[in-house]
Design brief:
heterodimer, A: alpha/beta, 30% helix, B: 351 residues, alpha/beta, eight-stranded mixed β-sheet, four-stranded antiparallel β-sheet, 11 helices
Chain lengths: 380, 351
C-alpha cells in the first residue's frame, strides 16, 4: 500500500488546470480547474463517473492530449513546469520521471514486438546501457510483477499473454525507470475480479519497489478504499471534495460523494438497505449554467446554489489547524449540513428517473417517492 | 434426474419451478482451416448445468468472463439451441417443441440485454420500440398506445418522450426502455444479462430499485446474470456460481456470502474490494494464480484444480481424487439448499 508521506515536499503539483475542446457544438469544458499536490510515496485516488474529466486531467498532466485541446494552468514536477514543454522535452520526462498505465492492455502494447523488446525499449529510452543489460533488466522487471518464468516470457508476443498478464507487463514498463510518479488510469477496469486482485498486488509491488507516488484513477470506490491515502472526487470537470480516504468514506461533506456511497450495493452487509440513487444525469459540459453543476440532482439545493458555484474550502475541524496532509476540502455551500448524515437521510430510495413530472407519479401502484427538488431535467 | 428429486428443501412452499434446467450442454464446434472445414474439437461453453428457478424468485448466475453464464441464458431462451439437455419452462421442454410453440411461450419469458446502446434500434422511436413485441404478438389493437404509455410510466420514464429516438436518452434511461420492452407482453420470467454493468453507479442504483419494485409488483421471476457480486448479493435470493462451464456452488444469497464452501467462490468473494477503507484493509485476500484454462480443453476431474489453493494443501491420494473424479454438486451438511461441487469443501469466511 503506502509508505506514509513523511515530508511535506511535493513531487507533482497541479494548479488550476483547465482543458477545453473546441467542437462543432461549442467548446467542451472538460476540466474546469483542478488543483492537487502529490507527496512522495503517496497514493491519490481520483474518482468520478464517466465524463467527469478524471482521465482528461491525467492526459493533460502527461502532455498526451491532441493539439486541438486548449490547456491552461500549471503542472509542476518538482521544480519543473511541464505545461508548454516541447514534445522532445516532454519525452525525457515521460517514463523516467512520470509514468503512465492505461486502461486497456490490449492496445497499450504493440502486437508486433516481443514483450522483452518492448520492456528493453522503455529501459533504453532513458538509460545508456547495452542491449544485454536492458534485456536482463526486462527479465527482472517481469519477475517483480509476478510473471512466472520471466526468462521464457520475454521471448513471447502480447497475444500469448492473458489480459491480466498484459496489464502486469504494462506495469513493469511503467516501473522500468524508477519513476517518481505513476499515473494509473483505470488500470483494472477491463479485468475480472480475481485477475484484478492479482494486478492490484503487482501495482502495490511496483510502488513499493520504486517508492513512487501514484495517481490512481478509477470509478470503483472499492478499489480506492483499499489502495488510496487521499481521495479526490470529481464532478463535471472539477474536484468537489478532497480528503483522506477515511474522511471521504466515513465523513463525506459533499452531497455528491454521499450520494455515490448510497448508490453502492454492499457485498458485506446482511441487511440489504434499499439503494439511494442520485436522480438525473451529469450536466453537459458544453453550456454549463452558472452555479454549482450538481444543483439539479442535489437534495440540499437552494437558490444560492443556482447563482454561485461554491469554492473548494476546508470543512469544519480541518483547515488551518490541521496539517497539510490531513486537510479535508469540499465544494458545497452547505457542507456543514452534510456532516454525519447517512445517504438515506438526504437521498430518496426511488426507482424513478428524474425527468418524470409529478402528474405521472402514480404508475402501477408502485410506491414512488416524490423527488421534492422539483427536477424536470430534460432527457438529453 | 427428476425435477422432484433435487428441488431444494426450503423451496417446497414455493410450488413448482417456473424454469427447470437439466444437464444443459452447449458446445461450439472448432473447425479446421481450409476448404473442407472439418470439426476438430469443441469449446465446452456450458457443461452439464442444472438448476431451478421458482416464481417470484431472483436467481443470480455469477462468474467471470468466459465461464458460460451468458451462453447458459441464451441456450435457455433457445436463442442458441442447446447441444443437449432439457429446459423446462412451465412444464414444456423448450429443446423439443417446435418454433411456433416457442414463439408463443416467449411471451412469458423475456430478455433484457447488457448494452443499452446496442440493444435498441436507433432508427425507430421509443414508442415503436416498446410497441414492437405487442404488434408481433397481435396485441397492439386500439389500446396499444395506452399500453406503451403505461409501460413507460411503470419504468419511471415520461410517456411524453415516447416520440424521441434512443440517442436522445441517457444510458440509464435506455436501459429502462429495454426493460419496458421486455415487460410489454406481461412475462412471468425475465432473463437479465448484465443489466446494470454498463451504467455508472449513481444511475445503476435507480435501475436496481426499479427491478426490485417490478418484481414485487408483478411477481416476476428473474434469472440475473452478472459478474458484479455486490449487485447480486443485493438483488438475488439465491446465487449459482459458475466456473468454466459448470456450476460449482448454489446457495441462498446470504448463506453463500457468509459461508462459502467452494474454494473458487471463496477466492471470488475475497477478491472483490469493499468500499469501506478500514474493513477493506483488514481483509485477507485469497489470491488464485494463473488464468482460466481454455474451455476447448478443460482439465480432467475438478475443473478448478489447476488454480485451486486448497488442492495444493492436499495429500497425494486426495489430489488424485480431484484429478480423476469430477466432484458432484451436492449438499455438504449446511442444509439441502446449499450445494457445492468440491470433494473437500469446507467453509471459510472471507468477508
Amino acid at each position: 500500500m503506502t509508505q506514509a508521506a513523511t515530508t511535506t515536499e511535493t513531487v507533482l503539483s497541479v494548479r488550476d488546470l483547465t482543458v477545453d475542446f473546441p467542437t462543432g457544438d461549442g467548446v467542451v469544458h472538460a476540466v474546469r480547474g483542478v488543483s492537487y499536490d502529490l507527496r512522495p510515496g503517496e497514493v491519490l485516488g481520483i474518482v468520478g463517473e464517466s465524463g467527469s474529466g478524471k482521465s482528461v486531467t491525467s492526459m493533460a498532466v502527461m502532455g498526451l492530449l491532441p493539439k486541438t485541446a486548449r490547456v491552461t494552468g500549471s503542472v509542476r514536477f518538482r521544480d519543473q513546469e511541464l505545461l508548454g514543454l516541447t514534445d522532445k522535452e516532454m519525452t525525457r520526462i515521460r517514463g523516467s520521471k512520470v509514468a503512465m498505465i492505461f486502461q486497456d492492455p490490449m492496445t497499450s502494447l504493440n502486437p508486433v514486438y516481443k514483450i522483452g523488446y518492448q520492456l528493453a525499449e522503455a529501459v533504453l529510452a532513458h538509460n545508456d546501457m547495452s542491449r544485454e543489460a536492458a534485456r536482463k533488466r526486462a527479465v527482472e522487471l517481469l519477475e517483480m510483477v509476478n510473471i512466472p518464468q520471466p526468462d521464457k516470457r520475454v521471448e513471447q508476443y502480447p497475444h500469448e499473454f492473458s489480459g491480466g498478464m498484459r496489464q502486469r507487463v504494462v506495469i513493469a514498463i511503467a516501473m522500468a525507470n524508477n519513476p517518481d510518479v505513476i499515473i494509473a488510469d483505470e488500470p483494472t477496469t477491463a479485468l475480472d475480479v480475481t485477475v484484478q486482485a492479482q494486478v492490484l498486488e503487482s501495482l502495490r509491488a511496483a510502488q513499493r519497489e520504486t517508492g513512487a507516488a501514484m495517481v490512481l484513477i478509477t470509478h470503483d470506490l472499492g478499489v480506492v478504499a483499499g489502495q488510496a491515502d487521499r481521495v479526490l472526487v470529481m464532478y463535471a470537470g472539477k474536484p468537489v471534495e478532497i480528503g483522506s480516504v477515511e474522511d471521504i468514506y466515513y465523513n463525506p461533506r459533499m452531497p455528491y460523494t454521499l450520494g455515490l456511497l448510497g448508490s453502492l450495493p454492499r457485498l458485506d452487509k446482511r441487511e440489504q438497505q434499499r439503494l439511494t440513487p442520485i436522480q438525473g444525469s451529469p450536466p453537459s459540459l458544453v453550456n454549463l449554467p452558472p452555479g454549482c453543476p450538481f444543483t439539479p440532482r442535489c437534495p440540499l439545493a437552494q437558490d444560492v446554489c443556482q447563482s454561485r458555484e461554491p469554492d473548494l474550502e476546508a470543512v469544519d475541524g480541518s483547515g488551518l489547524g490541521a496539517s497539510a496532509t490531513r486537510v479535508h476540502l469540499s465544494a458545497c455551500h452547505f457542507k456543514e449540513q452534510v456532516a454525519r448524515q447517512e445517504p438515506a437521510d438526504l437521498f430518496k430510495a426511488t426507482a424513478r428517473d428524474a425527468d418524470l413530472p409529478e402528474e405521472f407519479g402514480g404508475g402501477f401502484g408502485i410506491e414512488i417517492v416524490d423527488n421534492n427538488n422539483g427536477t424536470e431535467d430534460e432527457a438529453r | 434426474m427428476t425435477t422432484q428429486a433435487d428441488r431444494p428443501a426450503h423451496a417446497v412452499d414455493r410450488g413448482e419451478p417456473i424454469l427447470s434446467v437439466r444437464n444443459l450442454v452447449k458446445e461450439f464446434p472448432i473447425r479446421s482451416r481450409g476448404l473442407v472445414r472439418r470439426t476438430v474439437g469443441a469449446v465446452h461453453a456450458v457443461s452439464d448445468v442444472s438448476f431451478d428457478l421458482y416464481p417470484g424468485e431472483t436467481l443470480g448466475l455469477v462468474g467471470e468472463s468466459g465461464c458460460g453464464k451468458s451462453t447458459t441464458s441464451r441456450a435457455i431462451l433457445h436463442l442458441q439451441p442447446a447441444t443437449s439437455g432439457e429446459v423446462y419452462f412451465q412444464g414444456n421442454d423448450l429443446t423439443k417443441i417446435g418454433k411456433a410453440r416457442i414463439r408463443a411461450l416467449r411471451r412469458d419469458m423475456q430478455l433484457v440485454f447488457q448494452d443499452p446502446y446496442a440493444s435498441l434500434n436507433p432508427r425507430i422511436t421509443v414508442n415503436e420500440i416498446i410497441a414492437e413485441p405487442l404488434k408481433i404478438h397481435g396485441l397492439y389493437g386500439n389500446t396499444g398506445q395506452d399500453t406503451v404509455n403505461d409501460l413507460m410510466q411503470r419504468v419511471g420514464l415520461n410517456p411524453e418522450h415516447g416520440n424521441r429516438f434512443p440517442h436522445e436518452f441517457s444510458g440509464g434511461q435506455r436501459q429502462r426502455i429495454g426493460i419496458a420492452r421486455a415487460l410489454a407482453l406481461k412475462p412471468k420470467m425475465l432473463v437479465l444479462d448484465e443489466p446494470v454493468s454498463a451504467l455508472d453507479v449513481s444511475i445503476q442504483a435507480g435501475v436496481i430499485n426499479l427491478l426490485e419494485d417490478l418484481q414485487d409488483e408483478l411477481g416476476l421471476a428473474y434469472l440475473f446474470v452478472a459478474h458484479d457480486l455486490s449487485v447480486v448479493r443485493h438483488i438475488a435470493d439465491r446465487v449459482a456460481v459458475m466456473y468454466l462451464g459448470k456450476i460449482v456452488e448454489v446457495a441462498p444469497s446470504d448463506e453463500l456470502f457468509e459461508r462459502p464452501l467452494h474454494p473458487y467462490t471463496q477466492a471470488l468473494i475475497s477478491a472483490i474490494p469493499i468500499p469501506d477503507p478500514r474493513r477493506e484493509r483488514e481483509r485477507e485476500r485469497i489470491l488464485i494464480q494463473g488464468d482460466v484454462p481454455s474451455p476447448a480443453n478443460p482439465p480432467s476431474g475438478c475443473r478448478f484444480r489447476t488454480r485451486c489453493p486448497l488442492f495444493l494443501t492436499l495429500s497425494e491420494a486426495d489430489q488424485s481424487k480431484c484429478v480423476n473424479e469430477e466432484p458432484p454438486l451436492v449438499a455438504k451438511g449446511l442444509g439441502d439448499a446449499h450445494t457445492a461441487a468440491c470433494h473437500f469443501a469446507r467453509v471459510q469466511e472471507v468477508l
